[in-house]
Every structure is written in structure tokens, then in C-alpha cells.
Amino acid sequence: MATKFLLTFAICRLIVTVGLTVDPMELLRQGVDGQLSLDPSDVKTASLDFGRLSRAEPLAVLHPASAEDIAGLVKAAYESTHGFTVSARGHGHSINGQAQTTHGVVIQMSGSRGKRLVSGKPALPLVYEKEKYIDVWGGELWIDVLRSTLKYGLAPKSWTDYLYLSVGGTLSNAGISGQAFNHGPQISNVHELDVVTGKGELLTCSEEQNTELFRAVLGGLGQFGIITRARISLEPAPQRVRWIRVLYSNFSSFTKDQEYLISLHEQPASKKFDYVEGFVIVDEGLINNWRSSFFSPRNPVKISSLNADGGVLYCLEITKNYDESTADSVDQEVDALLKKLDFLPASVFTTDLLYVDFLDRVHKAELKLRSKGLWDVPHPWLNLFVPKSRISDFDKGVFKGILGNKTSGPILIYPMNNNK
Ligand SMILES: Cc1cc2nc3c(=O)[nH]c(=O)nc-3n(C[C@H](O)[C@H](O)[C@H](O)COP(=O)(O)OP(=O)(O)OC[C@H]3O[C@@H](n4cnc5c(N)ncnc54)[C@H](O)[C@@H]3O)c2cc1C
Question: Superkingdom of the source (predicted)?
């Protein structure tokens, strides 16, 4: 089974075309219906992102009223003899300026200022209960997608760890979390898109229609078009989640168990976990604090008491979804799976919560960090895909080597099947 691991660390940088400066007021005369803002606070917001590593001031910020509005602006940029740049911004949670632009206009896709409609089509979001999919605006946040679908007892299948990200923003990358081994990343769970192309055309695309555009835009880093509508696949929403963490001091046992668990993806639901992720603990603070408030203070952990190899521990994170009809068998199913794993004895930490609280878990950490002034700070994060053949070299060189026990930042390891 081909496997790779996504390590959350990374930075990639790509930004659209650069042209000559144009007076933004000119753009107002180009027939844009939405609000083209020169407000310094809008410009400041659009010139920064979550990474706080890169700053670039646009000439103006468009709060689009519709998909046609975006098409009109991009067409004007394409046809303009002066030339100006256009960059879509979802929720601005990139790390290194991916949604910024200097000589042009940032299109603020998220937020409530635009009507965000396509003329002649129903207002979004729109849940298709029978077909099990939802149509959403490209700037919709995943937390709001979840809220809309839960009203129908449905939910998207594949997630990111954090839900205050836009649909267009994560579909331009991949959208990876612990469900990806089973359902694929978020980009593998999209039926159809409406996209504004670089020429300013508004096209619908899917595996059947405008296929090249569909495949280019998904994971296209915002370089092949602007997603205005996405049709996302849904499943019946589980009610509760049994969330388990087990610890390893041996890296190869840890990755072997991750690989084993994701190799079960074709098994029936009762014989596999629903979420497989993991993280590296090079500092005691991490396991007892960051992302851990659901477990502590009931389960404080001391690395020194666990015989960590080179001061480093590895935490496998797994969940089992259940509802009333499967509540009686969940313990048995979890135990049967845990028996096959090789973690440190007496290192099983378990909690149980509502499905929605599990999916929205990082927001709880966000609120805690915000209250301490530790959220709006620089985030020099890096994401890497590492093939299975090199993951143990990575452990020796980076986790035990370069990092040693000198960082308290999150180091996540998402095991993935290549065929998903
Ligand atoms: C706390 C935190 C946790 C995270 N966890 C995960 C995780 O678990 N898994 C994961 O995969 N990622 C994760 N990410 C990374 C995140 O998915 C990406 O940074 C994503 O791009 C952010 O979405 P955004 O809406 O803020 O996008 P932005 O930063 O606004 O934009 C990102 C890119 O997408 C383009 N873009 C934005 N909207 C559109 C659109 N409608 N059409 C076309 N292009 C568009 C932009 O031009 C830019 O290139 C996390 C980020 C943070 C800050």
C-alpha cells in the first residue's frame, strides 16, 4: 500500500499576475456592483494573513455582490491595457501571503457584506437532502457549512482540523485531516464547481464538464480560477465521537500502526477508525496544553515517566464515530482495534464528545490562545508531504535532530493513502 505522510509545517508561495498600477477608482467605472472598498481597515486586513510573515497592500478590496461581479472584475483585469492583479482571499489563513497582491484588487470572498448570488440560481447555501450534497458560496466558512448541513442530519465527509477556513481556500490547497485516509482530502469530495476563469468567464465544471478546469482548480492554489460555488458531498452526521490518544516512544512502531490503521480503509465502518492522525511531542507543554484541553487536567502526562527516545514521544490520535444505534458496540469495536496496536502500555487517554464539538475542537484552543494574546502572532508553519520510504530519516534528522526538545509548536503527522 503506497503511503505518504503530511507533516504540518509548510509554506508555499504563489501569487497571480503582476501588471502596471491602475487607479482603483477606474475600477468603479468598470461596472462592479459589489462594494469596492478603499477603506484603510479593509486594505490593512487584506494586506495581512495568519502567518504574519508577509505584508502586501492592495489598491482596493472588492466585497462581491455576486459571482458575476467577480467575473466582471477579472474580465476588466484581463482586458485592461494597464493591467492590474486580482487575488481571491478566503479567510486569510494562509501563512506566507498566498492571498495577497500589491498592484491590484483583493476579492474578499468570506464575510457577510456581499449577497454572493449567481443570477438566475437559488440563494446559497442549498442542501440537497436526497442526493446528499450541499451547494455553497466559495467564501463560506466550513463551520457554517457544517451548521447548515446538521439541520438535515448530514455533514461533509472530509475535513480540516480547523473550521474557520473558507471552502475556496481549502479547496485551492487540499483540505486534509484525519478522515483523508478513508474519504480522501476535501478536494476528492466535490461534485461540481462554478469558477471564474482568468479571462473572466463564469463556468460550471465537474468530472463530466470542463474537466481540465475542474481538476486544475482543485488544489490549484488559486492560480486557475476563482471558486464561486462548490457542490460538496455529504453523509449522515454521526452524533458522538469516542476520541482516543495513545503514546509511543518508538517512531517505527508509531508509523507502522498509523499505516496499518489507514490500510483498513476498505473495511466496513465497524472494523476501522473514522479518523487517524498523530503528533510529535518534543515538549511536555504540548500534550498537556495545545489541542489537549479536552483531555486535561484529568490525564496529565510526564514525558520523563514514559521513557521517551531522545526526549521525543509520538501520539497517535484516533476516533470512532457513533450514534444511538451503535452506542452499545462502540467499546467493543474500539478495544478490538486497539489490541492490534503497539503503543506504550498504560498510555491510553480517552474522551467522548458530540461530533460537532470534535470537529470544532481547534476553535476552543483558538479562544484560549486569543485570551492570552497568542493567536495574532507570526506563524512560520510548514507543510510537507514525506514519502513512507523517507519518514524515518525525517524523524532522525528533524524531530530528534534539528528540533530536539527545543520547540513547543504543533507538529502534526497525517498518514495518507496515495490512491485517495
Ligand atoms: C489554525 C489553522 C489550522 C489549519 N488546519 C489545517 C488542516 O487541518 N488541514 C489543512 O489542509 N489545512 C489546514 N490549514 C491550512 C488552510 O487549509 C489553508 O491555509 C487555507 O488556504 C486557508 O483557507 P482560507 O480561506 O483562509 O484561505 P486564504 O488564505 O484566504 O487563501 C488561500 C489560497 O486560496 C486562494 N483562494 C481563496 N479563496 C479562493 C476561491 N474562492 N477560489 C480560488 N482560490 C481561492 C487564495 O488566493 C490563496 O492562494 C490550517 C490553517 C490554520 C490557520
Answer: Eukaryota
Residue 113, in any domain of the structure = no
Residue 354 within a domain: yes
Point out the catalytic residue in the list 140, 194, 277, 395. 277
CA distance 302 to 296: 12
Q: Is 277 assigned a catalytic role? A: yes
Nearest CA to ligand 1 atom 40: 168
For ligand 1, mutation pick of 66, 162, 186 (most atoms within 8 Å of CB): 162
Please choose, from the candidates 253, 257, 260, 247, the residue with its C-alpha nearest in 3D space to the C-alpha of residue 314.
247
If we measure between CA atoms, which residue out of 136, 132, 133, 157 comes closest to residue 145? 136
What does the alpha-carbon distance between residue 178 and residue 190 come to, in Å, rounded to a whole number?
18
Is residue 138 located within the same domain as residue 182? yes
pLDDT tens-digit profile of 96-151? 999 999 989 999 999 866 556 777 778 899 999 999 999 999 999 999 999 999 99
In-domain check, residue 265: yes
Per residue in 46-65, pLDDT (tens digit) is 999 999 999 999 999 999 98
Q: Is 172 in the pocket of ligand 1 (CB under 6 A)?
A: yes
Marked catalytic residue, from 63, 91, 93, 183: 93
Is any atom of ligand 1 closer than 6 Å to the C-beta of 50? yes
Q: What is the pLDDT of residues 342-382, one digit of tens each?
A: 999 888 889 999 999 999 999 999 999 999 999 999 999 99
Q: Atom 41 in ligand 1: which residue has the minimum CA distance?
A: 168
CA-closest candidate to residue 33, choices 116, 106, 109: 116
382 CA distance to ligand 1 middle (Å): 13
CB 353 within 8 A of CB 294: yes
Looking from the CA of residue 141, the nearest atom of ligand 1 is: 25
Q: Which of the listed residues 236, 264, 280 is the one where a domain comes to its end? A: 236
Residues 260 and 216 in one domain: no
